[in-house]
Amino acid sequence: MSLPSKKISVLIGDDHAVVRQGLCALLVADGNFTIAGEASNGHQAISLSAALRPDVILLDIAMPELNGIEAARQILGKQPSARIIMLSAHNEDEYVTRTLEVGVRGFLEKQTSADILTKAIRTVVTGQPFFSPAILRRMQSIHSRPLDREGHAVVNGKRLTLRESEVLQLVAEGAANKQIAAALNISIKTVEKHRQHLMDKLNIHETAGLTRYAIATGVIESALQKHIL
User: Fold this and answer.
1) What is the per-residue pLDDT for 140?
2) Predicted local distance difference test score (pLDDT) of residue 228
3) What's the CA gap between 215 and 172, in Å, rounded?
């Protein structure tokens, strides 16, 4: 993956000053990041995000006044292109599901290594999703599907076509129907048809679910899967 020519600006939201200071020191020492600002609660994170427009936002889930998930929901409601990574001391499926539902692109446990954290930021800034190794393994276990001889997913006796797999990848990467149509040189109406076929075959009826499935089954390979697993 080629790195951006400029340093990646990061907004850090966490109610513990020592955690913010540690993250700031780590990212500055790396040399490829700048700290756009720091927030100690969800409301501050929302206002600073709007004012500073950082490349990536790191948000703790358990923050006072407004938790990280709700803060992310409000940030993305105003800035749909915002790249957000959630940080949590917990990695329960409920938290992961809720963050994906609001449009967050990454989820890391707080005990994550510095190497994984920097990889996550570099990945998410490009629009790709990124999850901690333990979370990825659990998602893969839950969503594992049989493959046919050509490596296509088989669900309920039906396999995804090549075009459906292409659409699934682009959906999981955050592309809108118009962008998918342009990338594949097909009409928006055709994209909508493939998307509906995907949902029917997989019995998944929301974008967050398609993203989880794509990650778990390896339709999209994040930098984490390439370099860590």
Assistant:
1) 61
2) 36
3) 8
CA separation for the pair 41, 94 (Å, rounded)? 22
Q: Could you tell me if 188 and 178 are in contact, meaning their C-beta atoms sit under 8 angstroms apart?
A: yes
pLDDT at 17: 94
At the topology level of CATH, where does 8-131 sit? Rossmann fold (3.40.50)
For residues 41 and 175, the model is more confident at: 41
- Best CA proximity match to 103, nearest among 90, 130, 78, 84: 84
The C-alpha angle 170, 95, 50, rounded to 5 degrees, equals 70
Q: How many residues make up the chain in this entry?
A: 229
Question: Tokens for 185?
Answer: 């040189």
Between the alpha carbon of residue 180 and those of residues 76, 161, 172, 192, 210, the distances in Å are 21, 16, 11, 10, 15
Write down the residue that tokens 């979370």 correspond to: 135
Q: Which CATH architecture has domain 142-216?
A: Orthogonal Bundle (1.10)
Closest CA to 168 of 150, 136, 191: 191
Q: How far apart are the first and last CA of the chain?
A: 17
Q: What ranges do the domains of the chain cover?
A: 8-131, 142-216
Q: Out of 9-23, 101-115, 120-134, 149-163, pick the least confident.
A: 149-163
Alpha carbon separation from 34 to 53, 115, 143 (Å, rounded)? 13, 17, 37
The answer to whether 60 and 104 have CB atoms below 8 angstroms apart is no
